[in-house]
Design goal:
Layout: H1 22-25, H2 36-125
Length: about 130
């Protein structure tokens, strides 16, 4: 499968982060403004450092973290294949036996009593 380098979040897993812009974080109300050059430089510094730090962090840690998550999901798959699914099959087999035993006990012990009571009360209906 080819890696899509344009749409990197096609399932919107991180849509809650949105597109974080300078104006989403900083805002000066009317009557309280810094010097224009400070505001422009702050805007440039914010964007530069946000992008640079993200790229440095992903360069340094992205592959290691991706490898760790790959191992984690491999462990989950391994655990399901080799432990959880066989446990469910074991329960299914043993519960089936218990269900058959319970059914035989009810049919042997209780069904005659219920049919007798039903026969008695059947006559009250008429």
């Amino acid at each position: 499968m080819e890696v899509d380098l344009v749409s990197r979040d096609p399932n919107s897993l991180n849509a809650h982060l949105g597109t974080l812009h300078f104006n989403d974080v900083f805002g000066e109300p009317d009557g309280t403004h810094s010097i224009d050059c400070v505001w422009k430089l702050s805007h440039g510094c914010f964007n530069l450092w946000k992008n640079l730090c993200y790229k440095i962090l992903t360069l340094c840690f992205g592959c290691c973290i991706a490898a760790e998550w790959g191992c984690e999901f491999a462990y989950i798959a391994f655990y399901h294949v080799w432990y959880i699914t066989p446990c469910f099959k074991w329960l299914e087999i043993n519960c089936g036996v218990c269900q058959r035993l319970y059914s035989m006990c009810i049919n042997c012990c209780m069904t005659p009593c219920f049919e007798s009571c039903g026969g008695i009360f059947h006559h009250f209906k008429k």
